[in-house]
């Protein structure tokens, strides 16, 4: 038994894990307190001389905006050769459009991008998490200052000044309609009558971020990426009508089809060009309306992508393709400032860089200036200087930039409380020597103050203002200034303490050193070292693939040394290794060879018949297993007992509806999500499923079915155990059977949450498990094998350490509304399905060892070997029997050679923790209590905790040490998010929670 001290230490080590993560995360992703409330115009009265003059607001140029977001609209889709945006390109040539490449910072996913575009701030990385927890009210922008809020507030302003619309305090449609009807062409009247109204069509992210903001809205969810047309038609159908309405100031459209095409088949998909043509025709429709409709004559039309896409068609990270969306401003009025247009298609100036590059956050202050409202309060963007030519006087231009600068200065002052930023020329602010960020900004601000005061060249004032704003934008959006280093160090120290406790628990197991122990230690050391190299993080799968291969090879060598297996090819370790090679090839992952050939996307699996045969085989396999589990629960476990056959049939009949529903759900889901994968597969059936099976309903039936079955087998086993303990006849507790049944039901759940092309992997995993069960592994070996296979399977299912590889396709199975907990759980399960399978399988292997250890006599051992082989082909069954028979023979010989000891039966099959030679009793085995059954799970979780804490510590240290590294946001931060998921959801939910449950059920 593990000592009480050890137990407490391990508990403490585990308790420290979430605390360490929390402390570190709050230092690494500091919570940026948003300044609440709407900004008002900055007071410029501190400026003496010509640029001051208080409330003089430069006249706005536009009164309406059409904001057309095309999801994942990469710069080259609009600006490059062969683009489908012929009309937009013609506007660029004619000078009616101003084109830019708008830099989108990582994470390049929609919600943080919309936040950046509307607030002008740089969303923290935590928004990635909030992106998946969208209903979290703290993440809405309802209470924050955005250009949408400003545009809405703008219409209400005149009420204070003008009696005519004074009664229209709530901005109802009637009053606004009147104002518009007669107000066109007159700036003042437009302001009074227009306004305050927004309409929105498209991606419902906007509706979640801005609840209650829109007069009229129609959201579409981006649930089925196979849907290229419906998502966009649902937007387009509203546009012609809205273009005739004069009551709105802002119309937001968000098209998803192009993004879906990217996700499905990449940027070079044959569907890409037609979609560009469609989007271009929408742009043409809107632009023509602006030219023709009088109420739209002062409308600014913005076409942009929220992010781009990489060569695989995905996004989330920071590859140039992902961070370079297009941004085009269009209006006939722009001809006043463009001096005859730009060449189009354009030539590249950098990777995916066309024309000038601006920041995505610059959009908010630019709209503020052009439409005439204060710059949103938390903005870090800078007014795009090309538009300054709209204003004739330098005073107007300077005031626009100055208000932008003052607004940013407020944030700067809050960020550097120790630094003074005087509004008067102050000799004490130095610009010499090496300056830290705060000092540099103070120096630049002095440059502005000096230029405003002095009689310098007027253009020099604008230059100084731009210089200050841009520097502030760079510094404030760069990361170094944002960390709380104390928390980073404190969090890392807690992780170190957790590791230290775990090592203390393991202290007695270090000696004598065994080759398995050395292998484990080496794995741990190499893994933690490689975390400090960004390229190794990107290609982490190689580490696990090769380590697993090496380990399996070691098992083969180690085991064949004993010579009990005479056909090396068919040695179980070799079989596992061969299957491992196939699994590795299943999904290409990592950065370097993303999109390269793999099995999941090969011609073979594109052949629907092959794919669905494999998938069907997988479902059938599980239906049989589950049928047996149910059969066991309704009678004696011995299949040869009376009525055994009947019970098996009954069991199969009981689980068949569940299996069929699960299969039909997968078929129906795939028909919607990836229709190309069901082409040619029983068309009639597919159409029937599409028509009659509700996907939400079917998924719920599967989940409920699994839940009910689990309760059934648990209750049945509980009754059996009670009867058995009373000594009732024929009632033999089948603990191991219960654990296996739970594992099988769990796997059906995992398969439901797995992409169709990956389902055949479960056949491979199954076979690997089968062969592993033939190997006489000790506890340490089981722990290490489990650790390696959990990680290998994570990557072989197509995951990586990049945000863009998170698979969201199964996150809404059975969920109709939005439910953070349900969706969060489903996202986790569908991305960690492989690790969940293997860590549960690892517990089964431990239970195997225990069972063997607890039994005496080879007869039963044989029977068990046979039972394990059920469900696999006859050939393999026979081989398995031979294997086990041989092994049992070896055991028999060995037993005969071992000095008789009360513990020999236990020690031979289940040696103490530090031994890797199952057939040699260790010195400590003379005390049976040192390796009683509870110990093996204790030792297993100790080793798993050791890995979790040390990898967490390594990631934390890497993020702390490399916090100013170029790749901190692109590689290390996502890695930390993954480490959080491994450390919290996986370690606690799966290893301790689920694993503990299966362990208890099997004892
Ligand atoms: Zn997307």
UniProtKB/TrEMBL annotation:
Residues forming coiled coils: none
Pfam families with a match to the protein in the record: Phosphodiest (PF01663), PIGO_PIGG (PF19316)
Subcellular location: Endoplasmic reticulum membrane
Sample GO molecular function, one term: CP2 mannose-ethanolamine phosphotransferase activity
Comp. bias (Gly residues): 167-186
Keyword Transmembrane attached: yes
Mode of membrane association: Multi-pass membrane protein
Start-end of Basic and acidic residues biased regions: 154-166, 867-895
Residue stretches spanning the membrane: 485-506, 518-537, 543-560, 649-671, 691-715, 978-1000
CDD domains referenced in this protein's UniProt entry, alphabetically: GPI_EPT_2
Disordered: annotated segments: 152-197, 852-928
Annotated GPI ethanolamine phosphate transferase 2 C-terminal domain residues: 480-1001
Cellular component, GO annotation: endoplasmic reticulum membrane
Associated pathway: Glycolipid biosynthesis; glycosylphosphatidylinositol-anchor biosynthesis
Signal peptide residues on this chain, from the entry's feature table: none
Keyword vocabulary terms for this entry: Endoplasmic reticulum, Glycoprotein, GPI-anchor biosynthesis, Membrane, Transferase, Transmembrane, Transmembrane helix
Keyword Repressor: no
Source domain of life: Eukaryota
Compositional bias of kind Low complexity: 896-928
One record GO biological process: GPI anchor biosynthetic process
Family: Belongs to the PIGG/PIGN/PIGO family. PIGG subfamily.
Function summary: Ethanolamine phosphate transferase involved in glycosylphosphatidylinositol-anchor biosynthesis. Transfers ethanolamine phosphate to the GPI second mannose.
Protein name: GPI ethanolamine phosphate transferase 2
Source organism: Delitschia confertaspora ATCC 74209
Organism classification: Eukaryota, Fungi, Dikarya, Ascomycota, Pezizomycotina
């Amino acid at each position: 038994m593990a000592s009480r001290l050890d137990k407490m230490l391990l508990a403490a080590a585990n308790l420290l894990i979430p605390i360490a993560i929390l402390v570190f995360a709050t230092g690494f992703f500091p919570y940026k307190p948003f300044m609440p409330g709407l900004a008002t115009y900055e007071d410029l009265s501190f400026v003496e001389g010509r640029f001051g003059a208080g409330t003089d607001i430069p006249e706005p140029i536009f009164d309406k905006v059409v904001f057309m977001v095309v999801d994942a609209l990469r710069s080259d889709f609009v600006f490059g050769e062969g683009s489908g945006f012929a009309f937009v390109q013609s506007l660029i040539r004619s000078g009616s459009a101003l084109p830019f490449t708008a830099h989108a910072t990582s994470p390049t996913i929609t919600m943080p991008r919309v936040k950046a575009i509307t607030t002008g701030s740089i969303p923290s990385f935590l928004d990635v998490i909030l992106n998946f927890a969208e209903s979290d009210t703290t993440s809405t922008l309802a209470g924050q200052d955005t250009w949408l809020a400003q545009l809405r507030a703008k219409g209400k302003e005149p009420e204070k000044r003008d009696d005519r619309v004074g009664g229209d305090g709530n901005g109802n449609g009637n009053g606004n309609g009147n104002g518009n009807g007669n107000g066109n062409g007159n700036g003042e009247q437009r302001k009074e009558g227009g306004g305050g109204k927004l309409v929105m069509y498209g991606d419902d992210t906007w509706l979640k971020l801005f609840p209650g903001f829109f007069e009229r809205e129609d959201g579409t969810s981006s649930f089925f990426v196979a849907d290229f047309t419906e998502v966009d038609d649902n937007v387009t159908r509203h546009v012609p009508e809205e273009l005739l309405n004069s009551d709105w100031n802002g119309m937001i459209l968000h098209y998803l089809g192009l993004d879906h095409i990217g996700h499905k088949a990449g940027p070079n998909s044959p569907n890409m060009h037609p979609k560009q043509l469609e989007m271009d025709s929408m742009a043409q429709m809107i632009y023509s309306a602006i030219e023709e409709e009088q109420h739209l004559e002062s409308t600014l039309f913005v076409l942009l992508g929220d992010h781009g896409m990489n060569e695989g068609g995905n996004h989330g990270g920071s590859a140039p393709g992902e961070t370079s969306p297009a941004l085009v401003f269009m209006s006939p009025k722009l001809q006043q400032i463009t001096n005859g247009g730009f060449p189009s298609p354009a030539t590249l100036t950098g990777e995916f860089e066309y024309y000038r590059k601006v920041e995505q956050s610059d959009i908010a202050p630019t709209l503020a200036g052009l439409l005439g409202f204060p710059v949103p309060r938390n903005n870090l963007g800078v007014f795009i200087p090309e538009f300054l030519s709209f204003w004739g006087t330098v005073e107007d231009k300077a005031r626009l930039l100055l208000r932008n600068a003052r607004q940013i200065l407020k944030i700067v002052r809050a960020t550097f409380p120790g630094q003074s930023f005087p509004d008067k020329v102050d000799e004490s602010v130095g610009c010499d020597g090496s300056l830290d960020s705060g000092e540099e900004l103070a120096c630049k601000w002095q440059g502005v103050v000096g230029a405003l005061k002095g009689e310098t060249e007027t253009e020099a004032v604008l230059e100084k203002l731009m210089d200050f704003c841009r520097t502030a934008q760079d510094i404030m959006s760069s990361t170094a200034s944002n960390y709380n280093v104390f928390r980073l160090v404190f969090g890392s120290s807690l992780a170190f303490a957790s590791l230290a406790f775990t090592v203390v628990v393991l202290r007695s197991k270090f000696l004598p050193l065994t080759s398995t122990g050395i292998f484990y230690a080496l794995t741990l050391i190499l893994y933690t070292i490689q975390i400090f190299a960004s390229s190794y993080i990107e290609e982490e799968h190689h580490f696990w693939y090769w380590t697993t291969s090496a380990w399996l090879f070691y098992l083969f060598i180690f085991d064949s040394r004993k010579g009990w297996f005479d056909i090396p090819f068919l040695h179980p370790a070799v079989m596992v290794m061969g299957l491992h090679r196939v699994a590795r090839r299943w999904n290409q992952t990592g950065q370097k060879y993303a999109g390269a050939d793999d099995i999941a996307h090969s011609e073979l699996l594109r052949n629907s018949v092959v794919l669905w045969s494999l998938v069907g085989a997988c479902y059938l396999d599980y239906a049989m297993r589950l049928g047996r589990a149910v059969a066991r629960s309704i009678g004696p476990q011995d299949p040869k007992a009376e009525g055994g056959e009947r019970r098996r049939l009954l069991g199969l009949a009981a689980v068949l509806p569940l299996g069929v529903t699960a299969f039909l759900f997968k078929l129906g889901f795939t028909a919607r999500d990836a229709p190309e994968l069901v082409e040619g597969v029983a068309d009639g059936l597919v159409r029937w499923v599409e028509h009659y099976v509700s996907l939400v309903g079917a998924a719920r039936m599967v989940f409920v079915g699994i839940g009910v079955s689990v309760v059934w087998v648990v209750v049945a086993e509980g009754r059996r155990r009670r009867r058995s303990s009373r000594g009732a006849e024929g009632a033999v507790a089948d603990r191991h059977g219960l654990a296996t049944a739970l594992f099988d039901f769990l796997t059906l759940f995992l398969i439901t949450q797995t992409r169709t092309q990956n389902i055949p992997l479960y056949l491979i995993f199954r076979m690997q498990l089968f062969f592993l069960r033939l190997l006489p592994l000790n506890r340490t070996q089981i722990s290490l094998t489990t650790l390696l296979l959990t990680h290998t399977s994570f990557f072989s299912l197509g995951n990586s350490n990049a945000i863009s590889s998170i698979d969201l396709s199964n996150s809404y199975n059975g969920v109709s509304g939005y439910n953070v907990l349900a969706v969060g759980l489903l996202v986790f399960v569908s991305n960690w399905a492989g690790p969940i399978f293997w860590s549960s399988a690892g517990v089964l292997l431990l239970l195997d060892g225990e069972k063997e250890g607890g039994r005496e006599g080879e007869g039963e051992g044989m029977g068990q070997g046979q039972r394990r082989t059920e469900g696999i082909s006859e050939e393999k069954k026979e081989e398995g029997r031979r294997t086990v028979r041989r092994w049992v023979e070896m055991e028999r010989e060995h037993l005969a050679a071992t000095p008789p000891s009360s513990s020999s039966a236990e020690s031979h099959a289940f040696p103490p923790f530090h031994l890797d030679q199952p057939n040699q009793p260790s010195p400590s085995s003379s005390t049976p209590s040192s390796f009683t059954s509870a110990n093996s799970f204790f030792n297993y979780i100790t080793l798993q905790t050791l890995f979790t804490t040390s990898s967490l510590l390594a990631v934390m240290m890497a993020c702390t040490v490399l916090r100013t590294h170029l790749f901190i946001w692109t590689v290390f931060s996502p890695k930390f998010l993954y480490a959080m998921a491994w450390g919290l959801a996986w370690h606690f939910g799966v290893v301790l929670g689920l694993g503990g449950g299966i362990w208890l059920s099997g004892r």
